[in-house]
Amino acid sequence: MTVFVEISIGSAPHQVPFEQAHTVAAAAVATGVTGLHLLEGTARNSTVDPSVTAAHLAGTHPALALLVDASTHHNAPYNLARRVGSLDRASAGRTGLVLRPGSGDEVSDAVTPSDSAVDDDAGRWSEYSQILAGLWDSFPASALIGNQTAGVVVDDDQLARIDHEGDFYRVRGPLDGPVSRQGRPPLVCADIDELGAEAVVPYADVVIVDAHRVADILAAVRRTLTLVGRPQGAIAVLARVDTDSSATDLLEWAERIGVDGFVVADSGTTDATLGAVHTLAAGLADGGGDTLREALGLVQPSYGLETATVLA
């Protein structure tokens, strides 16, 4: 079973200090946990940038998958796509992005039409997700030739500008580096209750849902997958559970309801997080998969954004 452990890296008493992140990562690897979900902070509860922590851990713990939190707020799509793509190459295809809803960024806002619906979080998240997918597809791995004899570094014919002009963003592309061995990094939504299935399902590869909401969200995801023309099983559903849960009970429940994996909720301090890794997470994990997509049971999307039906 795919299992991630949430971790908040920061200097507050209820967080894991940056210098102890390796201790938690090593414990996760040793117990067969799939990876860590690195949480993004808020104005009142700051964290070390999850992408910085991910880069710090990727080289030392190559077997560990990393889910990196980032919101649309203050993150221009091109910059975030490039940053996550670089992390994914560095981790040999074991990085995913948990895209959080939010406001815009100063780069994109400068070219956003004045009549855009600035409070449409679902619309912004969907458009941002479409751009990410297009950018990650814009530089296929096969385009990187690296032929010194012929003097050819990149096959320009394989690169594709996305030329996106939407309600919130203007992005041309392509990216300046290829995708990793897993292809497009998995796109994760942890806010489907807030955004709605219609906004999320056309684009997401994974959704994280609190355990008590799984049954309702699963039904909505399956129904919307059919409506947008994506196959059933195209989205992995991970149940977010607290540390008071029983591993045995959770595994039986997951098999019965059809959950694809778990995310163990943030436990706070280093000792509490290590306790969650060694008890609950270790009891749920069974490893598997060289890349994050393989671990999640996902294939590289073949439907293409140009053919998927997007619900208004």
What does this structure look like?
There is one protein chain. By secondary structure, the chain is α/β, with parallel strands linked by helices. The chain is 34% helix and 17% strand. Strands 1-2-3-4-9-10-11-12 form an eight-stranded parallel beta barrel, surrounded by five helices. A two-stranded antiparallel ribbon has the order 5-6. The longest helix is centred in the middle third of the chain and has 16 residues, at 121-136. The model is unreliable at 303-308 (pLDDT under 50).
| Structural class by SSE content | alpha/beta
- The ordered string of helix (H) and strand (E) elements is EHEHEHEHHEEEEEHHEHEHEHH
Strand content: 15-25%
Major sheet summary line: 8 strands, parallel, barrel
Average pLDDT level = 91
Query: Percent range for helical residues?
Result: 25-40%
Silhouette: globular
Q: Unreliable runs, pLDDT <50, ≥5 residues?
A: 303-308
Strand order of the largest sheet: 1-2-3-4-9-10-11-12
Radius of gyration: 19 Å
